[in-house]
Design a protein that fits this description.
Two copies of one chain form a homodimer.
Chain A (H helix, E strand, L loop, with lengths): L17 H19 L4 H8 L3 H13 L3 E6 L10 E5 L3 E9 L3 E8 L4 E8 L7 H21 L2 E10 L2 E2 L7 E4 L4 E4 L13 E4 H12 L7 E6 L3 E7 L2 E3 L30 H4 L1 H7 L9 H10 L3 H25 L3 E6 H4 L1 H15 L10 E3 L6 H16 L8
Parallel strand pairs in A: 3-6, 6-10, 11-14, 14-15
Antiparallel strand pairs in A: 1-2, 3-4, 4-5, 7-8, 8-9, 11-12, 12-13
Helix pairs in contact in A: 1-3, 2-3, 5-12, 7-9, 9-11
Chain lengths: 404, 404
């Protein structure tokens, strides 16, 4: 894995070197190519505020590392030598995203331009199976996706796996617990067939939030992304960066005590948010039998048909979510709140009561109702975020790419 | 104000320069002098991993800017020229901290070694007085403190004012609201007598948290500091940096809906934390008449005398605080929780019930009872944090100091 390493600590304690400067300047030039592509070397120098000679040296390195391509000379309207257009490489470096869910596996490959080039998804009942078997299946799907990418001229430089569980902050990313798969203390390298392609695990809510941040047109730099699958998770993007907490447990919104004397929760607490806004609780309150396939689709279908108990259950869920989000806004002072995952698909019925609670209770700080919005990516976010993680790392530090 | 500017955005978008490198290396060398003082140039080079020549040039600049002093030559046990010991300057650059409370004004001056050299405090009923009059009094106290510092050979390079209110993130730091003083939308420069000494305002809870972080022996890098004065405030230190939120409102713990159907709160919400753990609520529940001078001392005195209603009121406050802190731990995943301000003085009676709630409700994440502790600084934290802010800025960027 060429582009690895999680939660890297910025080395503010050591002296700065010429190498640090060059790395930073490579990133600045690559960012400018991405923003202005196609662009000539001369125009690029103007954009970044470095000399033409400095930019040319940096561009040459970016080309040799496969991040940038240079088209054949084209005539321009200007006096002098015609410019050769620089652009982000559509072949070469790419990021692989993987996802293991309760009932599916998925893989995708994204190129340096951020374009999705490969997307595969298979239904698979993973809950309760041994982690090693599930990971073998995921590795097989990953290999297929990499082969497909390779046929497109792409070279996977990093691999990230989205999981509905908690991943520790330690290097290597121990998977602490995945409640709905029945995993505890799983180290991917112990099970992955090929030691050269072991992915880095990450919590799916975190990756969904990052995907939202990286793909939104005018993103909030500080927002909380709440998503629901079988459980409820939140991810915090603060000043443009994912905040994972001391141990990787940040964003455990599902066990906020929204009604302290409420019903017992499986976690050992009482009146936790999941007892009101979790999938199982909403289905129970709506009087619906959990279906085998897609409970979210069932809830949306019943709510769309104005089924009164379903509407009441979603209203109750929204009010509880509004209480938890009131505390979240008070504590974090975010620019926005995003409802992702299953909540994005149920937003029509959740948003009114969530907004009512926020309006009544967020009083010290100014709060605009439309600061709460559903995610545009919905359930696709985590897989996309997994693949984009590698792309963003390369953009921030092009020397992660092998020299040509 | 030589060392100004709040919430500076790190310029990751521009190219790196030799000037950036030198600034960073000056900070590394100054940090090493602080850590190893007294220290020779040769030993310093070893500590920071730069050449002796590079270190000498950096040291010369630090001396000319007044940050470092060099003792006369002393004989060492080593072969060769005797080393001259470098140390942090005990004269020269310093930071001024100011504080405006409901019933007092205070000022202090801290030198580059972090030592408090001047400390002044006067009782003054500030609530309800016009902001301009209070600020004139604060400016007079600041001038006295600066004169005293000047007599000690110190030169104040930056001024920060601690306030029990919300300060916006915008440059210049508009004071949005100070509920218990009756201020709203106050810009200090409009009232401060001397335009050259206008302080930068900051929320007192934030400064208390930073003081805790900067002075603790082995600090948590990610912790939440909860403090109570007339209201309840929290401050978030995340990865070693104060997190202020999008608008400066982060940490508004006082209006967490701990019992959503509880009593009405003055904020417009219901069942807010302040209705259970705020000073007025605890006094009321304890059946005590709010005293003129020091309600916290009264509560501590009654609790120490085993006054049953006071003990019950503090137990109830601790339980409510435990609910709010459960949500805080779930969301932030901090390394520690610190009870500061008045809570530090009431910790003996609050801690048991706060810990009981945390133990019962923080279940997904491992939680150790002693991760919750009272602040060692107590009510002195905010003023100290205000003065240390300037010292820390100089340590991070010595070029903020005027060249000699």
């Amino acid at each position: 894995m060429a582009v690895g390493g999680r939660a890297s600590v910025s080395a503010t304690s050591g002296p700065a070197s010429l190498q640090d400067m060059r790395r930073q300047n490579l990133a600045v030039v690559l960012g400018a190519v991405a923003a202005h592509s196609p662009v000539s070397r001369a125009d690029l120098a103007g954009h970044v505020g470095l000399t033409r000679a400095a930019v040319s040296s940096l561009v040459d390195e970016l080309i040799s590392r496969g991040a940038v391509t240079e088209a054949a000379a084209t005539a321009s309207g200007r006096v002098g030598r015609p410019g050769r257009a620089l652009a982000m490489s559509s072949e070469g470096p790419a990021g692989l995203g993987l996802e293991i869910g309760v009932a599916h596996l998925a893989a995708c490959v994204v190129d340096l331009r951020g374009d999705t080039r490969v997307w595969r998804r298979v239904e698979r009942a993973n809950a309760g199976r041994p982690a090693g078997r599930v990971l073998e299946d995921a590795a097989a799907l990953a290999a297929e996706a990499e082969a497909e990418a390779s046929a497109l001229g792409l070279r996977v430089e990093g691999r990230v796996l989205a999981l509905p569980g908690v991943v520790s902050n330690e290097p290597g990313g121990l998977v602490e617990i995945v409640p709905n798969l029945g995993w505890r203390g799983v180290r991917l390298a112990d099970h992955w067939p090929d030691p050269d392609t072991v992915p880095e695990p990450e919590n799916e809510a975190n990756l969904g939030a990052l995907a939202e941040y990286w793909t939104a047109g005018r993103p909030s730099a500080t927002f909380v992304h709440v998503s629901a699958a079988a459980g409820i998770g939140a991810a915090l993007v603060l000043d443009g960066r994912l905040f994972r907490g001391t141990r990787g447990f940040a964003g455990e919104l599902g066990h906020f005590p929204v009604h302290p004397d409420g019903p017992d929760c499986a976690c050992g607490g009482r009146g936790c948010l999941e007892q009101y806004a979790g999938e199982a609780a909403v289905l129970r309150e709506a009087g619906l039998t959990p279906p085998g396939a897609d409970p979210v689709a069932l809830l949306a279908e019943r709510a769309g048909a104005a089924h009164a108990p379903t509407l009441a259950a979603l209203d109750r869920a929204g009010r509880a979510l509004g209480l938890a989000l009131t505390a979240t806004v008070d504590l974090i002072d975010p620019d926005g709140l995003v409802l992702g995952g299953a909540y994005a698909e149920l937003a029509d019925w959740l948003l009114p009561s969530v907004r009512a609670e926020l309006a009544a209770r967020v009083t010290v700080r100014p709060w605009a109702p439309d600061a709460l919005r559903p995610s545009a990516l919905g359930r696709r976010g985590p897989l996309l975020g997994a693949a984009l993680t590698t792309v963003r790392r390369i953009m921030a530090n092009p020397t992660l790419l092998p020299a040509g």
